Amino acid sequence: MTKVVYLILAIVTGGDNYELLKIKYETFLTCDEIYINTVKFKEIGNRTYPIYLNKIAFAHWCEDEQGNYYYGKEYE
Prior knowledge:
The chain is mainly beta. Helix content is 11%, strand content 58%.
């Protein structure tokens, strides 16, 4: 059974600025699985960064429709 889940990504927009993006999914995946399937990993210099829309995603979490943290079906 699928569930509506929102992946929240904190994206670097320049300097010390960031933006929170809220991406809606209807899924049965865990938050970590949603994240891994959403961002791409890119090596820049000696480090690997999670990238979304050509910007670095430095933090993430998931919420359900009520705004509660969502980890995954097996954690409920």
